[in-house]
Amino acid sequence: MTSIKNAAAEAGVTPNALRYYEKVGLLTIARDKNGIRQYSGHDLDRVRIICILRRMNMPIKDIRVSLDIGDDPTVSEQERFKQQLADLADSLDQKMVEIQQEKQLVLRKMRAVDAHINRTKTDESAV
Known about the structure:
Elements: H1 4-11, H2 15-23, E1 30-31, E2 37-38, H3 41-55, H4 60-67, H5 75-126
Antiparallel strand pairs: 1-2
């Protein structure tokens, strides 16, 4: 069992993010006799899964549904989750294309700046 501070550090999120995940029903965390949250290994695994899905831009409501599947999901539940993951993968592919296009624009601008710098240096050395 670990504290919220340690759990957050281990998961790479803030304690406030963990509190939020608990508030919206993604986590149910045990508390000690003083009301202090105590994260188990299972809780940390669940936090890691939540973080992966959030990085993939899965909405909280979809994460909740996915995590509520349980330990013995039906084929229908597994297929629905698989489709959610496929949709997220498609979204990530589109974002990668957009990022690549933005990168090409930045690289073109860098080449233009380099050309300008070289012309300026040439002009200065001719004087």
